[in-house]
Amino acid sequence: MPDSDSGATADSGATEYDVIVLGGGPAGENAAAYAIAGSARTAAIVEPEKVGGECSYWACVPSKALLRPGHVLGAALGLPGIEAEGPDTAAVLRRRDEFVHAHNGDHDDSSQVDWAVQQGIEVIRGTGRLDGERRVRVGDRILRARSAVVLATGTHAAVPDVPGLRDALPWTSRDATNLHEIPKRVVVIGGGVVACEAATWLSALGAEVTVLVRGERLLAGVEPFAGEYVASALTAQGVQILFGTQPLRVQRPQSADHGEGRIHGGLVTVHAQGSGGEITLVAEEIVVAAGRVPNTDGIGLETVGLPAGYVQVDDQLTVSAVTGEWLYAVGDINRRAALTHMGKYQGRVCGDVISARAEGRSLSGPRYRAYADHRAVPQVVFTDPEVAAVGLNAAAARKAGYDIRTVELDIAVAGSALARDDYMGRAALVIDTATDTLVGATFVGPDVGEQLHAATIAVAGRVPLDALWHAVPAFPAISEFWLRLLETDRSSLPSAV
């Protein structure tokens, strides 16, 4: 086996590992596990908070636990003969706490630590900081990596520089997903995924919600019809959405940090600018869902010649501006695809690359390149209705230079009609005319997230539409809408000669 540290001399007093990962979220966990799998190599994860990261305690897991009761209630009310009341808030929050292992105001990550230990990964508590080539400092302790250092420190919520907003101690996604009391009135700033999902569960739990959206539609990254469906559903649920509106200043004379998910003081007043002029909103709480920034301050990027901010990598997740093929970055920090499942995917690719390089194996195979980041990123927005999309929407495909055709129709098949009387949904495909393969798909409707993987396989595998014609959907499943899409596309093409 080749010497993975290229002959570098060990630091006196340093603790050596083959792989050191800064950040114990899903991306970092996967990178460490795959890098040492089936070998005698050693790995350490350095984590200042909780092993399991943002997703496990403050994002994907708690948000879906809060959203699911509303989805189930909506499905029940969509059938005749079923009577149902609103969710039991206390029961919903208890179930959420079980998923995030919340105890006495904190989160217990012992099960995640146990998993790491079982994989042969040592967990080091503290803030890791690069200290030159292959070196990491954790407090007074020096660690040295024989093969690789992986940056997986993630991101945190951005708070816009609006006068008075930071002093008001607004909720971020961490508070909204771990709420312990329901504000009577809430102002949500943002129109993306976090804002839409938070508005959905806050409203379902009884809050009066107003959403301030700078642009003219929700979920700007997907096909326009998807955001329109979500906006209509939120409005029907009682949510007020103010498009073309942004906060000017915020006032909260009695702000106080009462803890995560607790109302942060007295009433908050939001002065905002809309198309009709200035408006004033008063609420018990304000939620900021206006993007995220990388957790790179203080991790020593400058010691290896890197600027502050996001870290650029190649398709093997190797940091582009650092020589020697020893520094990697996975997950949100590299800004390729800020989604947990994509961070885990990058971690798997990164770990395989580290393993192959340590053992002197070829990197020529597709498993050693994260190419799904470029054209086959799947995402589900768990609003009600859900939005599920993969690949490029029509506008993005045209901008990327594809010659495309599109097919779009309502999801109206026997399966959807049987699922619920009030089923409303829509589906769209973006087709590359040069290869007759899918480059994107978007679905909106109840539980369409479960329909997405078929589209992801078609996009990632570049499956020709002629082949998809032979993928017969079961009857009477909702997935029959795939057949209707293909039939609609076929009827729009010139007849074969």
Automatic annotation (TrEMBL):
Residues 377-481 form the Pyridine nucleotide-disulphide oxidoreductase dimerisation domain. Its cofactor is FAD. Transmembrane segments: none annotated. InterPro entries: Class-I_Pyr_Nuc-Dis_Oxidored (IPR050151), FAD/NAD-bd_sf (IPR036188), FAD/NAD-binding_dom (IPR023753), FAD/NAD-linked_Rdtase_dimer_sf (IPR016156), Pyr_nuc-diS_OxRdtase (IPR001100), Pyr_nucl-diS_OxRdtase_dimer (IPR004099). GO terms for molecular function: dihydrolipoyl dehydrogenase (NADH) activity; flavin adenine dinucleotide binding. Keywords: FAD, Flavoprotein, NAD, Nucleotide-binding. Residues 17-347 form the FAD/NAD(P)-binding domain. FAD binds at residues 64, 128, 332. The keyword Nucleotide-binding applies. The keyword Flavoprotein applies. Binds 1 FAD per subunit. GO terms for biological process: 2-oxoglutarate metabolic process. NAD(+) binds at residues 190-197, 291. Disulfide bonds join 55-60. Belongs to the class-I pyridine nucleotide-disulfide oxidoreductase family. This is Oxidoreductase. It comes from Nocardia jinanensis.
